[in-house]
Amino acid sequence: MATYELKINGNTHSVDVDPSTPILWVLRDHLQLVGTKFGCGISQCGACTIHVEGSATRSCQIPVSSIGNKKITTIEGLSKNGDHPVQQAWLEHDVPQCGYCQAGQIMTAAALLDSNPNPTDEDIEATMSGNICRCGTYTRIKAAIKTAAKSGSLS
Amino acid sequence: MTLVRTTFGRRAFIKRVGLASGGLMIGFSWLAACKDATPEEVVMMPDEWFEMNGFLKIGDNGMVTIMSPNPEIGQNVKTSMPMIVAEELDTDWDNVIVEQAPLNTELYTRQLAGGSQSIRQGWEGLRMAGATARHMLKEAAANLWQVPVAEITTAAGILTHQASGNTAHYGEMASAAAMLEVPEEVEMKDSKDFSIIGTSRKNVDGKKIVTGKPLFGLDTYKEGMLVAMIVHPPAFGMRFKSMDADSVKNMPGIKDVFTIDTYTDGTRKSFADIATFNKKVAIVGETTWQVMQAKKALAVTWEDSPDDSFEIDMFGRIMKTEYPSGKESSQSHALKMAEIGSKKGNVVRKDGNVDKAFKKAAKVLERSYSCPFLAHNTMEPMNFYANVTSDHAELIGPVQTPEFMEQSVAARLGLTLEQVDIHMTRMGGGFGRRLYGHFLTEAAVISQTMQKPIKLVYTREDDMTFGNYRPSYYVTYKAGLDENNQLIAFQVRAGGIPESPLFANRFPAGAVENYQAEEFTIKSNVSVGAWRAPRSNFIAGAEQSFLDELAELAEKDPIDFRLELFDKAIKKPVGENNDYEAERYAGVLKLVREKSGWGRTREGVHRGVAAYYCHNSYVAQVLDIVKKNGVPKIENVCSAVDCGIVVNPDAAANMVEGGVVDGIGHAMYSSVTFNDGEPQQRNFDSYRLIRHGEAPRKQEVHFVKNDIDPTGLGEPPLPPVMGALANALYKANGKRYYHQPFMSNKPLLG
Ligand code: FES
Ligand code: FES
Q1: What is the maximum alpha-carbon separation in chain A?
Q2: Cis preceding-peptide flag for B471 (omega within 30 of 0)
Q3: Which CATH code fits B344-374+469-745?
Q4: Delimiting residues of CATH 3.30.365.10 domain(s) in chain B
Q5: How much distance in Å is there from the Cα of B213 to the middle of ligand 2?
Q6: Which residue of A has its CA nearest to B383?
Q7: In which domain, by residue range, is A38 found?
Q8: What's the DSSP call for residue B697?
Q9: Is the ipTM of this complex over 0.95?
Q10: B629 CB near a chain A CB, below 8 Å?
Q11: What's the whole-model pTM score?
Q12: Was domain B217-310+382-457 assigned CATH 3.90.1170.50?
């Protein structure tokens, strides 16, 4: 066990865990930040996507010991009031079905738009292909990303 | 308006005036789903709630809480079922709060998610709940204002008596209304007067989903809770022999390691119980990661299991399934199906004489189709929270069959039904997987053993290799055309491991003079279960591909060819018990023909069509493929759907789009294969699910407008698209696709 000071959603959290514990389980089990989901544990489904220093990262693959001072953003911290343009676009298109994969989808989409505010269909498909949705909401996800891109309020 | 007799038992109307708890909402606040309120829009909670019936309560300020009785698995019933209540109550949707009802067999019927039946079977009861409450509110107002009930009108939660000029909102009358007798008869609205049903309303959990609020079973957290995981045999045909528990008991955070039996001898089992891996290892510890480490380190010895069988009570009928010993492989499965499928099967339906007709036929076409086992792969793995004490079991989590599981878990724990409370969480997908609640029982048994609250969590590998798969199927079609290219003989021989996908009375039965349906089954110890649109999820695609090839042989347009057959089935149906309405079937084909612009050719666009009827709904699809650098890409899928009245059109369209993507994906990429009894796919690196870039770029969904009571939508859009895909791929690649997955390793769709 070791103590880590984690910078998450603008706050510092102190946790005492085994150094090999992935950030995913630190968030879910130790900090009750359960918006970040467990889907596969092997970097294949994207359900656990968070931002580390702004880039979309699979939290099931990042041991807590490797994170250092890097800033983590989870779905709970993506916006204060749930009004990030991607979240708004998701509501506008009523994207979710079961909803389980959607936090990961939103985090990946938000990072994509951050680096590429006007993605083409091909850009969206390439970036989003790491996030699986068994309910099959891909068609709406694409439409919602385009709406968010158009909204122009992305900083 | 229609007058209907109310059929509520007295129990559904537990009257309450001034709840002892004051303004508190009943239930668990973290389960409660305040409707999607934007931050600016602060929901004003009333001081007092008045319970009108088991489905709804009205606050003194006019707010309405509607209980959504059925489990939510992503089919959006948590929004659409309350919409139906709100419609008949005649309240403003903006004043509605939706709560997930707990399991309560006295208040609700059929709290089950399965077979696309929630809306269809809930329809009457939900409308009645709303209409009854509205009637009681009107009566309360009539009493107060001393006017006839019949003169009172309602709209958007307001009661009005035109002549006297009296008005009141529902909240003002709720207390008096809740005291009244339940009327024997109530009026229900004409569908033309609907103002909520038929309009698109956003998912009531939408905001919580996009902001990552705890909604799912896996998100359950309770003070003092431990985490449990199971280890099950690595292969079908194997069982637990021994283990070295001591080697992991001292690992960090580990509390205990022991074996559990999901069922003990003599427990009565329902269809929601399954036979797979009865004895398994349970590991309990403080955190998920710690338990995962112990799971990896634990050495377990397995042994071959003998012949076995499992008895379930299928709604009063005892059904026994045999599980032969041995470790099976996909190769031997395929050989067996092809071999047995080449012989005459058990004849289930026979019209005319196919053998004679085939001899007369000018052209005969015979083709075989197959599909592999599939895992459900809900994105949220199996899990359940359990806190079992000597006289109570609190169970929280995702299960499609809470009612059935309450009975089996109570029997297993030695508790009465009253001592068991099951709370339903939003489910991260169901697709049939959570009809089988063994994980709930496992969690309960582990908690009972530990005398502690625990949350059972399956890893993806546990989940994917547990069985309960979509069966592997095989079908051979044979058809004969006469010299005028009329279909004169049709034979279907369908079977599978361990069940047949045959629906003997479905189309084209009824449209062909000489028709024969045969089936066969092959025993196996690989366990199976219902998987989104059971049996239809294979046979539809096979049948629709075959009809496409047959239409080509008949030199006819594939839609015209089918419409001619429906015409026969309408004018002069052959045989009895034909399980479809030919007009509605033809209706969706005509609609998709019109909406997709079928018949217009576009350079470089390859189109496939299919139509199917299952779970009481009709769906036709046209799928367009374009080729980019030689690689096919699905550009658009146009769906035409007849599911009666559509409660929530945009959410219904979402459901159709999802079924389309899911159907394409599984036909194209997915399979579970076996070697020595061992599933060869354990996680998403080896099990291919469709990904974003492979999904259709666009989708259009069109609903047939009619007044027929609503039917299901969770399943019907999936089966036909497999056929539309195969038929479009044929056009694009010049090659027919008979065996799923169409592409197992090479990317075919870009
Ligand atoms: S849980 Fe991390 S990618 Fe699937
Ligand atoms: S919405 Fe269910 S998995 Fe994506």
Answers
A1: 47
A2: no
A3: 3.30.365.10
A4: 2-202, 344-374+469-745
A5: 15
A6: A38
A7: 2-76
A8: S
A9: yes
A10: no
A11: 0.93
A12: yes
